[in-house]
Design a protein that fits this description.
about 110 residues, elongated, mainly alpha
Length: about 110
């Protein structure tokens, strides 16, 4: 589950709105039948385990996105952005918008 949530940051066709309800379904199955176990640990699915996995996965995905942005920044997107449909015109528009609205844009 954590891997799926982390990948959600980079693969938009894998939304957490699909992953988390499936984890809830596995938790319900585990509650009804203790033989249903989590494949990596062999332990029954629990709410705390799913919550922890989702939190860790989201943090790892966000950190990876941040590091890619901090390491590569605009030059990386100028070079490879077209692969994920981010074009220089889009970046120019975003930079203009953030220059205009600044901190309020981030807050809102």
């Amino acid at each position: 589950m954590a891997i799926g949530i982390a990948l959600e940051t980079f693969i938009p066709i894998l939304p957490s709105e699909i992953i988390v309800p499936m984890a809830g379904w596995k938790i319900a199955q585990s509650a009804a039948d203790p033989a249903v176990v989590e494949p990596l640990t062999g332990q029954p699915w629990t709410f705390i385990g799913a919550l922890t996995a989702a939190t860790v996965g989201a943090a790892i995905g966000s950190l990876a996105g941040y590091l890619i942005g901090a390491w590569g920044g605009r030059p990386l997107l100028d070079r490879y952005g077209r692969w994920v449909h981010i074009y220089p015109d889009d970046l120019d528009r975003a930079e203009t918008w953030f220059a205009r609205y600044g901190d309020w844009a981030v807050l809102v």
